[in-house]
Amino acid sequence: MSPIPGITGAALSAFDEPADDSGSEESSDELPSFEVGLFPGGDEGSSFRTQNDPAAPLQRSNYVERHGAVDIRCSCLDVIHGFFSAESETFATLIVLQFRFDSRKKARRFQAVNISLEFGGMKPGETGPEVFKISPDGSLSLVPTSQHEEVSREVGLDVGGGVLGATATARVGWTKTVSRDTNDQTTVTGSIDLKGRNWGKANCASWTLQENATTKTGVPTSMRAGILLKRKDEDPFQCIVKINATVDVKSAMERVFGGKPKDDPVLFDPSLEPTNNLQKYDTEELGAINLEDLCEVTHTRAR
Question: What pLDDT band is residue 6 in, cutting at 50, 70 and 90?
Fold first, then answer.
């Protein structure tokens, strides 16, 4: 196959209209997988680009939306601006997000997903808000499995003997059996990171979702996550959302794209009213909210 100009291995993407595969779906477990970005850039004006509405550019609810053999969505459920506590003069913002990772075809799945939301100021050099708390945070184990395996191997020895020039060979041996228990699980790992600079407060919320490598049932299909920011002022700020995934080989080969991500940054304005979609929040005590109560992870077995 001749190379396609401008296309590299890192540009493989599954997020296109599904190709016709009315034939049987064969298992791809023995095939290689590919690291793909869920932000195929395409050409200017590409439908893969998630843009801010020119008429209402602030705090869009649809952060990311990709469709294909496997789908990804990231939407904002709530944005609340206020104070960290009634006694402090520290400003704060609470953001609640909903992530979805779905397969539209049999034997298609996400093997791993990496998510990062990097916050910053609206102008170069502005540090923007601090990522103070997230949920889920740390390592979360889902659907643990234990599997007992026994591997047998025959070990033999050839023995030869001759009488009057005739040679007879016999094989004697034994069987060696190794027993072991294999434990595995689906995992979600959250962390607060410093990205784009090596000074100042943490500015990035990150999550990594990994499937159970033994059962190959994919990553969780749904995750609701919370982010609590501390702000030093009431200035507008922005967030760059990046999501990359490892998918099964058939999904990765749906179509090849080139280019860099061109999704618009999400723009925040602290002067906007709270959304209060999930519940009514106390804007004077955002630091007292238990983010774990807002977190929810759902795992549905891949078909």
Answer: very low
The predicted pLDDT at position 146 comes to: 66
Burial class (CB in 10 A: 0-12, 13-18, 19+), 15: buried
CA dihedral 86, 294, 115, 146 (to 10 degrees): 140
Tell me, letter by letter, the H, E, C secondary structure of 159-199: EEEEECCEEEEEEEEEEEEEEEEEEEEEEEEEEEECCCCCC
Higher pLDDT, 98 or 148: 98
Confidence of residue 23 (pLDDT cuts 50, 70, 90): very low
57, 59, 13: which is closest to 34 by C-alpha? 13
Place of tokens 């064969």: 26
User: If DSSP codes are grouped into helix, strand and coil, which group holds residue 293?
Assistant: helix
The 8 Å CB, 24+ separation contacts for 19-22 are 19/69, 19/254, 19/255, 21/105
- 94 neighbors 281 (Cβ within 8 angstroms): yes
| Contact in structure between 249 and 33 (CB atoms under 8 Å) | yes
pLDDT in tens, 140-172: 888 677 666 666 666 665 655 555 555 555 555
Contact 113, 219 (CB under 8 A): yes
Would you say how long the chain is, in residues?
303
Q: Give dist(CA 114, CA 239) in Å, integer.
A: 16
Q: Check: CB of residue 265 under 8 Å from CB of residue 58.
A: no
Distance from first CA to last CA of the chain, Å, rounded?
Answer: 32
Burial class (CB in 10 A: 0-12, 13-18, 19+), 20: exposed
Does residue 12 have a pLDDT over 50?
no
pLDDT value, residue 40: 37
Dist CA 58 CA 64 (whole Å):
15
Return d(Cα 83, Cα 266) in angstroms, integer.
21
Q: Which residue has the higher pLDDT, 120 or 173?
A: 120
- For 118, the enclosing helix (H) or strand (E) is strand 110-121
